[in-house]
Amino acid sequence: MKITDAKVIVTCPGRNFVTLKIETDEGVTGVGDATVNGRELAVASYLNDHVIPLLIGRDPAMIEDTWQYLYRGAYWRRGPVTMAAIAAVDTALWDIKGKIAGLPVYQLLGGRSREGVTVYGHANADTVDGVLQEISRFVNLGYRAVRVQTGIPGIATTYGVSKDKLFYEPADAAIPTEAVWSTDRYLSHVPSVFARVREEFGPELKLLHDAHHRLTPIEAARLGKALEPYALTWLEDPVPAELQEGFRLIRQHTTTPIAVGEVFNTIWDCHQLISEQLIDYIRTTVVHAGGISHLRRIFDLAALYHVRSGSHGATDCSPVCMAAALQVDISIPNFGLQEYMRHTDATDTVFPHSYRFEDGYLHPSSEPGLGVDIDEGLAALYPYRPAALPVNRLEDHTMHNW
Ligand code: GCO
Ligand code: MG
Questions:
Q1: How many angstroms is it from 200 CA to the middle of ligand 1?
Q2: Is the pLDDT at 29 greater than 80, yes or no?
């Protein structure tokens, strides 16, 4: 069996997505997500110019060899663009392997380890009263875990607070919008939010919070400590994680569990965090961390060190990514939680899929392969629109992390 063609489909049914579709001489096709929010066309070009010519004529069954060929063969290894392109190829080849075997991909990964994949939704609002209502909405929908983000008094806009409550789309303009940030205002507000939430919802609901890379280690330690009475399931991305040893300082001061990894591309971005047990959840996902093969490698390393998975599942991870993530989530021994931000109806129709939400769980498709496809005719109706993520400045205009 041989790969005969591969095409990159860029579509914008509400937001931009990049999808790779691989075709074979036996008529079996596979899909992979290659979306990097705000850098979509860079990945499309990397695939078209540097990857697709290498795929033609290869045996689609050789997933690991193809992964190693694209990773080692690039010479310039790693990075979000390269790894998203490799991820798309890897994901599409697993899809093909599953279809040929007549099995959902999770069966090829060892079969189910659980009944369903526990997901968390995003409750957010400008005010504390508003967020309490939003949390109720998620609880009524059956969610067992909720991420809580609110506006910060004195700051005009805050990460994670969205106009449209089921979706969060921060890439809102071709040229990045500029937000203003104050760590002091944030740190003095957030603990009071969680105090109210625990008071209203009691001890059982799993609560999460995303600091979105904005703190220093000692600030993160202070926040983690202040949040301890409210028993969060995790505090996410407390600091930018290039400096992996920075997490030691957070760990010395707080028992609030730490989650990190949505912007990581390879196992090398987290091997110190994992092997020194500086984190509790690793949030790498299929599209940004080298596909199903590499994600599984990261999660296997994590399992040795009591670190559980918590894959990123924001709106910019397409339904192809979500379908693939669920195949991994259901099969690994050290699954933690899966983020689940819903897609627009237009996105769901462009990417027909058969995973489903029920009772707080997502259930992967049981169809052969990943159980997801792209409707190319529909995709063509939604042309690419330039959209960049915002940038962040301190009140004195110093550039900060968004
Ligand atoms: C999350 C993330 C997202 C990212 C977005 C960037 O935890 O879901 O932090 O909200 O900001 O995916 O593209
Ligand atoms: Mg996040």
A1: 27
A2: yes
CA nearest neighbour of 315 among 338, 291, 344: 344
The strand pairing partners of 154, in sequence order, are none
Domains of the chain, with CATH numbers? 3-104 (3.30.390.10), 108-368 (3.20.20.120)
- The pLDDT tens digits of the residues spanning 294-341 come to 999 999 999 999 999 999 999 999 999 999 999 999 999 999 999 999
The ligand 1 atom at the shortest distance from the C-alpha of residue 339 is: 8
- How far, in Å, CA of 295 to CA of 212, rounded? 22
CA–centroid distance, 76 to ligand 2, in Å, is 27
Do the beta carbons of residue 176 and residue 157 sit within 8 Å? no
Q: How far is the CA of 15 from the centre of ligand 1 (A)?
A: 14
Does ligand 1 come within 6 angstroms of the Cβ of 269?
A: no
Instruction: Give the pLDDT confidence of 172-224 residue by residue, as tens digits.
Output: 899 999 999 999 999 999 999 999 999 999 999 999 999 999 999 999 999 99
Atom 8, ligand 1: which residue's CA is nearest? 314
Q: Which residues are catalytic?
A: 159, 212
- What CA–CA distance (Å, rounded) separates 24 from 60? 8
